[in-house]
């Protein structure tokens, strides 16, 4: 996508980052890094790259928030199972937001899957919009600065490395980081699945009540106590 970035500049960067933040699987991070490298060459302004990436991220996340707040629950019920995020799994995601809400919003932009779900889930849960906007803006600024400024500073070293070794080592490293991020995020969001009884299993009980009455005395005997009485009489 670098050629499009060179041709269309900040507008292309803004649109890609916005759409990725809304939930589409686009290479926003890679594009911000490419823009940072171009800024290091003098083709783009570093300040403009930073502002474009940050504003695109904030606008995209807030569009996701509005979408989740207005249509989130209905969308999960109707379409969730088709993308592996049915009501049961979505409830697990909501539980993580309840437990770690502030931190999830702050770090979600740096983590694949969470980056796409961040605004939508916050909106579905009706998180306070001013609170979400503040945390999301801080996160977007840190993200744009880390990738844009990092590529700007180390851009010359990257170009030398690419000239000597090609781009395949970076692709392999990026794929590895992406895989680790996906697995880690999946385990974080859906770890409750491993703790729940499997289909057809039931939770252990101490004894089944007879006649639907209590454990204590008379008709409150359980099957265990009945068997014990039978052994004594026998």
UniProtKB/TrEMBL annotation:
<feature type="transmembrane region" description="Helical">
    <location>
        <begin position="6"/>
        <end position="26"/>
    </location>
</feature>
<dbReference type="GO" id="GO:0005886">
    <property type="term" value="C:plasma membrane"/>
</dbReference>
<protein>
    <submittedName>
        <fullName>DedA family protein</fullName>
    </submittedName>
</protein>
<feature type="transmembrane region" description="Helical">
    <location>
        <begin position="100"/>
        <end position="121"/>
    </location>
</feature>
<feature type="transmembrane region" description="Helical">
    <location>
        <begin position="168"/>
        <end position="189"/>
    </location>
</feature>
<keyword id="KW-0472">Membrane</keyword>
<feature type="transmembrane region" description="Helical">
    <location>
        <begin position="38"/>
        <end position="59"/>
    </location>
</feature>
<feature type="region of interest" description="Disordered">
    <location>
        <begin position="200"/>
        <end position="234"/>
    </location>
</feature>
<keyword id="KW-0812">Transmembrane</keyword>
<keyword id="KW-1003">Cell membrane</keyword>
<dbReference type="Pfam" id="PF09335">
    <property type="entry name" value="VTT_dom"/>
</dbReference>
<dbReference type="InterPro" id="IPR051311">
    <property type="entry name" value="DedA_domain"/>
</dbReference>
<keyword id="KW-1133">Transmembrane helix</keyword>
<feature type="domain" description="VTT">
    <location>
        <begin position="26"/>
        <end position="147"/>
    </location>
</feature>
<feature type="transmembrane region" description="Helical">
    <location>
        <begin position="133"/>
        <end position="162"/>
    </location>
</feature>
<dbReference type="InterPro" id="IPR032816">
    <property type="entry name" value="VTT_dom"/>
</dbReference>
């Amino acid at each position: 996508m670098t050629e499009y970035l060179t041709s269309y500049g900040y507008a292309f960067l803004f649109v890609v980052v916005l759409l990725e933040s809304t939930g589409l699987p686009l290479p926003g991070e890679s594009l911000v890094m490419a823009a940072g490298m171009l800024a290091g060459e003098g083709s783009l302004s570093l300040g403009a790259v930073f502002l474009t990436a940050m504003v695109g991220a904030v606008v995209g996340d807030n569009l996701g928030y509005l979408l989740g707040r207005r249509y989130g629950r209905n969308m999960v019920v109707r379409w969730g199972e088709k993308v592996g995020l049915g009501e049961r799994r979505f409830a697990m995601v909501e539980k993580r937001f309840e437990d770690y809400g502030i931190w999830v919003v702050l770090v979600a932009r740096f983590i694949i899957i969470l980056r796409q779900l961040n605004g939508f889930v916050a909106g579905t849960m009706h998180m306070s919009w001013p609170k979400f906007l503040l945390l999301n803006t801080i996160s977007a600024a840190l993200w744009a600065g880390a990738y844009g400024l990092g590529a700007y500073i180390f851009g010359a070293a990257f170009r030398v490395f690419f000239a000597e070794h090609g781009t395949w080592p970076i692709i392999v490293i990026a794929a590895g980081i992406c895989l680790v991020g996906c697995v880690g995020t999946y385990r974080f969001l859906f770890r409750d699945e491993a703790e729940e009884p499997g289909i057809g299993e039931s939770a252990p009980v101490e004894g089944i009540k007879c006649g639907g009455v209590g454990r204590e005395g008379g008709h409150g005997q359980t099957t265990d106590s009945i068997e014990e009485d039978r052994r004594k009489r026998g």
